[in-house]
Design brief:
Six copies of one chain form a homohexamer. Chain A is about 80% helix and about 0% strand. The first copy, chain A, is mainly alpha-helical. The first copy, chain A, has two domains: about 50 residues, no CATH class; about 70 residues, AhpD-like, CATH 1.20.1290.10. The longest helix of chain A has 19 residues. The model of chain A has no long low-confidence stretch (mean pLDDT about 95). Chains in contact: A-B, A-C, A-D, A-E, A-F, B-C, B-D, B-E, B-F, C-D, C-E, C-F, D-E, D-F, E-F. At the C-D interface, helix 6 and helix 7 of C face helix 2 and helix 3 of D.
Chain lengths: ~120, ~120, ~120, ~120, ~120, ~120
Amino acid sequence: MTRYERGLEKLNEIDGQAGTNVVESLKDIAPDFAEYLIEFPFGDIYSRPGLDVRSREVATIAALTAMGTATPQLKVHIAAGLNVGLSKEEIVEIIMQMAVYAGFPAALNGLFAAREVFEAEEA
Amino acid sequence: MTRYERGLEKLNEIDGQAGTNVVESLKDIAPDFAEYLIEFPFGDIYSRPGLDVRSREVATIAALTAMGTATPQLKVHIAAGLNVGLSKEEIVEIIMQMAVYAGFPAALNGLFAAREVFEAEEA
Amino acid sequence: MTRYERGLEKLNEIDGQAGTNVVESLKDIAPDFAEYLIEFPFGDIYSRPGLDVRSREVATIAALTAMGTATPQLKVHIAAGLNVGLSKEEIVEIIMQMAVYAGFPAALNGLFAAREVFEAEEA
Amino acid sequence: MTRYERGLEKLNEIDGQAGTNVVESLKDIAPDFAEYLIEFPFGDIYSRPGLDVRSREVATIAALTAMGTATPQLKVHIAAGLNVGLSKEEIVEIIMQMAVYAGFPAALNGLFAAREVFEAEEA
Amino acid sequence: MTRYERGLEKLNEIDGQAGTNVVESLKDIAPDFAEYLIEFPFGDIYSRPGLDVRSREVATIAALTAMGTATPQLKVHIAAGLNVGLSKEEIVEIIMQMAVYAGFPAALNGLFAAREVFEAEEA
Amino acid sequence: MTRYERGLEKLNEIDGQAGTNVVESLKDIAPDFAEYLIEFPFGDIYSRPGLDVRSREVATIAALTAMGTATPQLKVHIAAGLNVGLSKEEIVEIIMQMAVYAGFPAALNGLFAAREVFEAEEA
């Protein structure tokens, strides 16, 4: 299996349709970047055996909430968190905890992103 | 049990001596801030039942690595991660994954911080 | 008076309706976070006697402008600044000054946020 | 030629209509800031002989993509890049490269900004 | 009075020896940047009448603490805050407040910077 | 030629000894990360034909200066800039320009990093 194939499988497992949408959206502007996105993050990193995928999503949701510059990607990974078995309650806990490290605005904006994702899941 | 007592217990459980050192170091400049640090992050947030403490440390290590502005605190939480049952391998995986979300320099600087903590643990 | 009561009083004094709106908006996704928001920032920090509330809003408007990741919260605090006695001119000065420390885009985006708040106040 | 005149000339050369729009948009909220924006960035910095204007736009597009807090200004400078002779392909390369230094979300959001600017240019 | 002269006067008034040191330190690497530093931040911004210099230092200390990427400059402005009449207590309050907006690590690192400056003042 | 081989060649061309040092320093803590560092940034991105390597270093120096969280990596790329043909004057211009986009402290800290690299080159 190539890095690309392994990455595509991982991307589908974790991000589902949202991952495919991102890849599609890159086709006209930067098709090679879609490949890198599949190969490095998913083919290389998420495929590594040393950390379970649930913990990987905990890490990503925490980091994107704290950074505060990547709302679209945070939403994708909140949905991914649900896909890999995190409960809504756990996701809310991760985001609330970021108030300690990145301030209340970062946590607030993360919580509002989570609400959007949760509502879309229920619709 | 007051928030302060609950927080102090949690701080000791998670951060051990490093937590006590931070609190001590605040005594002359901002003693009230030492109290807030015990009460809100540890008495309120880390004491919540909705997320296991291992996942809380995954989140914190990820966020502090990604932010790149809090090396002393990252080191405290790498040690805390070991305290609550994360393996060195898992901590390295979390930090490497941050290359995807915050860039290679953030991951590199996180890995160098981890090496320092691991070496100090072994000494 | 509990921390919660003191915080709620302070939140109403400073943020007025905008504060209540944020608290309301958290009710369905993270009601405990609404409590923390009232208790720690407003019940603990803003209630401290060592710095006047006008200077506290100068600090918050400056920080949120410089960070550039918290536009909704910046707008709440621009309105709060007016509530606690800062003039529009003073708020514009604070934001312009951030060009020096965080760059022209941070200041520009802060000024556009201020214009929105000023226009809403006049409507 | 005053700093203001030199800056205005440079702003028109580099940013074209988008620059004028930013200056206009400041007139009601902070007219002096429009002057500073013309004088320091364009009258002082971009007018310096030590670096060609094409390289200056490479630097600005890279920095604004990496920072991730200045999307409106990034779009202005993607258009400016085209004005001073960068090809669309080169701009896409600069933005993709930022995945290495600031993470994939920063690069993705930069690419989506570029697509918007490129589409507007073609319309 | 030229912008340069006005800026130099303001820099001396606010930053004292620390300001002169920064300007000196730029002489061999980027002498023109020393001029810009005197002219734009101090000759243009800090010289404006619309906000008192005490409030300007509140804003700067808050922003630099929150950003977490400018420790040397934060120290200069903590000393400047003392120069323009802020008490140590007020400076500590500003920095502690940043825990709310930028997280506890930003506030902690700011407090440790303040302690260094206060100790140097006393020595 | 594999991605690894192509990346190693590129790393040596651009970063010289400093690149080898970073790779070496990862051997004990995260050897796989050294591979990724060679493969993705250098084997994939820097090897792409769409942008000359000189412009790539302009972009990287600008971004790392603006971010302000990656001083060790900024120094490596200032040296890399000299390796690929940027003059000291051009590097100073790139860094000074960042005052406009990320503030004066980011530019100052970048200039001090450049001075260190220039002095080491001369030694």
